[in-house]
Amino acid sequence: MASAELEKLISEAVKGDRKSISRLITMLERGDKQSFHYLVNNIKDSYTASYIVGFVGPPGAGKSTLLGKLVKKLLEKQGGKIGVLTVDPTSLLSGGSFMGNRIRMVEDLKGINQVYVRSFSAGHSLGGLTVGVYFASKLLTLAGYNTVFIEGVGAGHLDVKPLLYSHTRVAVLTPTSGDIIQMVKAGVMELCDLYIINRADEGNPFFVKSQLEETLRLRIHPDKWVPPVLTTIATAEKGVQEVAEAILQHKKYLEDSGEYCRRIKDMVVTELKDIFTTEVNEAFESFMEKNKTLIDKYLKNDENKTAIISYIVEGVTEEIVRRWVVDVAET
Hints:
Helices cover about 50% and strands about 10% of the residues. The chain is built from 13 helices and seven strands. It has helices spanning about 5-15, 20-30, 35-40, 65-80, 105-110, 130-140, 160-165, 180-185, 205-220, 240-255, 260-290, 295-300, 305-330; strands at about 50-55, 80-90, 115-120, 145-150, 170-175, 195, 230. The longest helix is centred in the C-terminal third of the chain and has 32 residues, at about 260-290. Keywords: ATP-binding, Chaperone, GTP-binding, Hydrolase, Nucleotide-binding. InterPro entries: AAA+_ATPase, GTPase/Isobutyryl-CoA_mutase, P-loop_NTPase. One of its GO terms (molecular function) is ATP binding.
């Protein structure tokens, strides 16, 4: 795409044209380097201009249903425009993805022009986010969406990227999410600012709530924010108002305490790591596609495996340098 055409497309997206926003996000998902470099160099204040909320939890916790109800409540309370970026798992066999998360939001959000919803495939990224999600959130910020929700893929304790790339971090659990042993495990459970026990009309939600609250009391909270534990029944819209209020309270806390700026630094580190990891993976696949015999050589017992690994590292490094030098020179 010519630079003038790309600039026009971005100009229309900034004005709020949904088709232009969607087209740009599709280009980013497909790895379009020109749009990637343009956005990297031209989106200003993308970390401070919008408020990003990470939403994670196990499959079946009701994240999407709750999110649909929550977005409506937040629009009522604060107005503005809200973006929702949801991530669905990718098939290891076909490489495809069934974008099911947004289906659960349709009834609540259809026809609301102040809301933009986009689904992503997790691909093979570790942690549940692809680089496209990061830049989609920046693009929405540029288009005037003052709040952006990122819903994780639902990969349990490894579903950390939506949390690391957000100002406020939310975990959605159920009354069957486990005992105190699960609660104290590292990963998602130690990162969140707000815990929600959804589907509270099942099992024993108040037992899980008390267990989680006890766990949180035992932890050191260096930023002085003690995460609240709330119960909801999303399908009946019970407790959703309290969740909306808790999220806005945490936003105010971040702004008043200066923690907002520290979170932004965490977000930048997460983004840069994933950009680098993505480039390495793509370069590795490209190099190995050109050197298919290396696998057979590596399997032979009489081959120097260290030398083969060194050869691959050098080849992948050259591929990364070639890509970036050429791409940057052309933009």
